[in-house]
Design a protein that fits this description.
heterodimer, A: 510 residues, mainly alpha, ABC transporter involved in vitamin B12 uptake, BtuC, two-stranded antiparallel sheet, 4 strands, 77% helix, B: 368 residues, globular
Chain lengths: 510, 368
């Protein structure tokens, strides 16, 4: 009896993750058939993961709000590209330029998002086809803007960008302006800035709550502040010691004794975590250790409060396993050859956190309710249309940021066509991760990006080897993307019809 | 006030706007002293080329599936049959027996084979669409796209032996464009064609491709007759009110499959007619956006996602192709050598579809 239950459990787990398993098998098959170098694949994969994950994460909120797969994220990408034109034109560079672009793109994306939301409210039940057509429509308007209006109607005096006086040139080069503006920030800098922001935020909350005379939760906050301060202090110290030493060597001046004493440790840390690109093996080690510590704290908490401690324990064991696995020479050979941009990867965590936080608020709960049943939501006093518009807005803004992160990593983009396939690739990736039209989460998004882009890299290689001509790659890629979406949509619709018929039958029985 | 409101509801806004726009363009062409008549000739040619593809929307809308964005399925069947006609060298072989009939035999072969293959594909496609009621438009779009890319892979590896089809170098797979000179290129376009209003030095006149016009109108008429038969009426009933149709003993699912199969077969015939007018068969991704253009054309003609008539096809295709053909020369003169037409086509085409979507209350789902 127990065995049977276990078997059916395993069966249902396999069935639920069928898309995921299918793609994993395909990936492994293509890799082994094409005999491609694994470090090449992993290098490509981690570049693509950093680039694309944020765009895919922007799709999650609308799915949960019942809007289905938001093909309209193209509009967010457009907002971001328009902002980039002006920022590059004004000559801002580096992280300042990046922040400014995000600052300009956000209100644009909000306005676009509201308009898209209103449109979706007018076409309830067929949001996905609306989003798709809207994407093409927006694409047309954007082309009109880029090719004729900019410089033609709106004054835009820049002979470098507009060689003819109107109409931007076809390839937009970000080298020297926004290229790697986010990627080039090292982990130590991220930690320093994050710690400062965290401490300021916590102090502000404490002050606010004590003025309002609410419960403070002081111990927890102070512990948090201390940890953040220590982390921030260490990372700041490491960077400043290294820079002091380097300027001292360059100028031939002496340095204080304390700096000299700290130097060896600081250099080591700087070599590990202070580079603009983090070695993947270091990143895995760091992530494993931090996560293991977090799980350990949770485990202690659970033991003290006598709650179930299986999850934290399992998490801790998993982290230890990951660290050990990463030390196996064969694996280490691969991970030690890949470098990842720390800050861009940190943004993936930030996007996940935004999604989770939003869904935990009252608004997020409303969104889920609206997503499950609009009639119930209305009778519960939720303004359905408004909630849906907000969901689309959030998605559009996240997509705009996601596209910005994508483009700063890519470096050059096609001014006219870059945004066209944003929705297609992102949605295909999300579906590969096991998400459906009604259910999606951060984990599925990240796993989806990994699998989809692995296949994106290796499937054409395998096909080229099979056919003996590399021109087939593009067709394979596009067929994969469209095929995944077609299959997922068909399956979803099929299920929906079945459910409806099932209900009808039940009603008849009654 | 109420009357005004209901009158406003009945007016088809996109058609009015597009019509006004079209007339404005014609007027402007006159102002800039462009050869309006010869361009009108091109519009008629493209109207003929697109007519049957747009006609494919009628049965699919009438049977309740909505605009068939996945007409690409029919299109790839048509391309396949066209390629087979060349591969078997039908034009040359028949010409040897009956001189002058080669191209006709070739196009008739392509049409019949294409329609038969497409009908079978359409039946399968219809069975799929019966399982996804309510989400047909999204599913058809992506199935159509997938079909185009799947067939691209097939074209790339297909073992055709004809020198006209395969690449000159390398000798494997289908070319991007396959010349139809030696098979059925412009056979309908040339048949009984004559030029009107030609005046030396003033205008090249309108070329009237009689054969093409007659064929398109004939196909329209056949579909019209079919929709008037018992089966056709059952298809319309299944689309407009499935519950009522079911109550009166009509097999709704079967009727939907018939509608879709007919639509797919028309798509196959449509692409052959398109190719004979164009002079080439375009393999690979060229037909990718054709589905959207056909949908936009019938919508401009006054169709909705629930109701379409033959007249919508004829008017809509003329207006839409009129805009696409007339804009480039005009924008070339007015905007100093820039061609705005492709951008404009994209905006109009998708704008019209969006408008129709907002008017379709609760989507095309007819099973609510």
């Amino acid at each position: 009896m127990k065995n049977k239950k276990l078997l059916s459990n395993v069966g249902s787990i396999l069935f639920e993750n069928k898309v995921l398993i299918l793609f994993a098998v395909l990936c492994i098959f293509c890799i082994s058939y094409s005999e491609v170098n694994v470090s090449y694949v992993s290098g490509e994969l981690f570049t693509r993961l950093g680039r694309n994950a944020c765009l895919v994460l922007s799709l999650i909120i609308p799915v949960l709000a019942g809007l289905g797969l938001n093909f309209g994220i193209v509009v967010g990408a457009i907002a971001s590209q328009i902002a980039i034109f002006w920022v590059v034109h004004w000559g801002f560079t580096g992280i300042t330029g990046f922040m400014l672009t995000a600052l300009i793109a956000t209100p644009l994306a909000i306005i676009f998002g509201i308009l898209v939301g209103i449109l979706y409210n007018k076409t309830k039940g067929s949001e996905m086809i609306t989003g798709l057509v809207l994407g093409y429509f927006a694409d047309g308007l954007y082309k009109l803007f880029v090719l004729y209006i900019i410089g033609g109607v709106i004054p835009f005096d820049d002979p470098n960008l507009l060689p003819r006086g109107f109409g931007l040139k076809n390839a937009f080069d970000l080298t020297g302006s926004l290229k790697y503006s986010l990627d080039d920030i090292s982990l130590l800098e991220v930690v320093t800035v994050a710690a400062v922001i965290f401490v300021i935020a916590q102090i502000a909350i404490i002050i606010y709550k004590s003025v309002k005379k609410q419960a403070l939760g002081l111990t927890k906050r102070i512990v948090g502040i201390v940890i953040a301060a220590v982390l921030g202090g260490v990372s700041f110290a490491v960077t400043s010691v290294v820079t002091t030493l380097e300027t001292a060597i360059a100028n031939g001046t002496g340095v204080p004794a304390i700096v000299n004493k700290l130097a060896p440790v600081c250099y080591k840390l700087d070599n590990l975590y202070g580079q603009t690109r983090l070695l993947l093996s270091d990143a895995i080690f760091l992530f494993g250790v931090v996560a293991a510590i977090v799980f350990a704290v949770k485990l202690v908490q659970a033991l003290i409060s006598k709650k179930s401690f299986t999850r934290p324990l399992a998490g801790m064991i998993a982290m230890v396993l990951i660290i050990v696995l990463a030390m196996i020479p064969a694996v280490n050979a691969v991970t030690a050859s890949v470098r990842i941009p720390a800050c861009t990867y940190a943004m993936i965590f930030v996007f996940c956190a935004i999604n989770n936080w939003l869904l935990s608020t009252k608004l997020g709960q409303d969104m889920r309710t609206v997503g499950q049943n609009r009639a119930v939501a209305t009778s519960a006093g939720i303004n359905v249309n408004r909630t849906r518009i907000i969901a689309v807005c959030v998605s559009t803004v996240l997509a705009a940021w996601g596209q910005l992160i994508f483009l700063q990593n890519l470096g050059t983009f096609n001014t006219i066509q870059q945004q066209t396939n944003v929705g297609l690739y992102s949605i295909a990736a999300l579906l590969v991760g096991g998400a459906s039209v009604q259910k999606a989460n951060n984990k599925q998004a990240v796993i989806g990006v990994i699998l989809f882009h692995t296949l994106f890299v290796v499937a054409p290689l395998a096909a080229t080897k099979l056919v003996g001509d590399s021109a087939i790659s593009e067709y394979i890629r596009m067929f994969l993307s469209y095929g995944v979406i077609a299959a997922a949509l068909a399956m979803h619709a099929w299920k929906k019809v079945k459910k409806k018929f099932g209900n009808d039958k039940k009603a008849e029985v009654k | 006030m109420e009357k005004l409101k209901s009158a406003m509801k009945n007016v088809n806004l996109p058609r009015l706007i597009i019509l006004a726009f079209f007339l404005l363009i014609v007027a402007l062409m006159g102002v800039y002293k462009l050869d309006v008549l010869s361009y009108l000739g091109s519009v008629i040619k493209y109207w003929g080329m697109w007519g049957i593809l747009a006609l494919a929307m009628v049965p699919s809308i009438q049977c309740g599936v909505g605009p068939n964005f996945g007409v690409s399925l029919g299109i790839v069947c048509g391309i396949l049959s066209g390629l087979l006609a060349i591969e078997f060298d039908i034009a040359v072989k028949v010409d040897a027996i009956l001189p002058g009939f080669g191209p006709w035999a070739s196009i008739i072969f392509a049409i019949i084979v294409g329609a038969v293959i497409a009908w079978f594909v359409g039946v399968l496609y219809g069975m799929l669409l019966n399982r996804v009621k309510g989400d047909e438009m999204t599913v058809t779009t992506y199935v159509g796209y997938s079909a185009i890319y799947l067939m691209s892979i097939v074209w790339f590896t297909a073992p055709f032996t004809s020198g006209i089809i395969k690449w000159a170098l390398g000798g494997k797979g289908v070319r991007n464009q396959i010349n139809l000179n030696t098979s059925f290129g412009s056979v309908l376009y040339d048949a009984g064609g004559f030029t009107l209003f030609a005046k030396e030095g003033v205008t090249a006149g309108i070329y009237i491709p009689t054969g093409l016009i007659v064929f398109v109108l004939l196909m329209c008429f056949l579909v019209f007759i079919y929709m008037k038969t018992k089966t056709g009426k059952a298809i319309t009933a299944a689309g407009s009110n499935p519950q009522f149709a079911r109550a009166s003993g009509i097999n709704v699912d079967k009727m939907r499959i018939r509608g879709i199969a007919l639509s797919t077969a028309l798509g196959a015939i449509g692409i052959i007619i398109y190719a004979q007018g164009y002079g080439f068969i375009q393999a690979y991704t060229a037909p990718l956006s054709m589905g959207f253009q056909c949908v936009a054309a019938v919508l401009i003609g006054g169709a909705t996602t629930r109701k379409a008539k033959i007249s919508h096809v004829i008017i809509g295709t003329f207006l839409f192709q009129g805009l696409i053909i007339m804009t480039p020369p005009l924008s070339n003169v007015m905007l100093q050598g820039t061609d705005i037409s492709d951008t404009m086509r994209q905006i109009i085409q998708n704008g019209v579809i969006l408008y129709a979507l907002t008017k379709a209350k609760g989507g095309v789902s007819s099973e609510e």
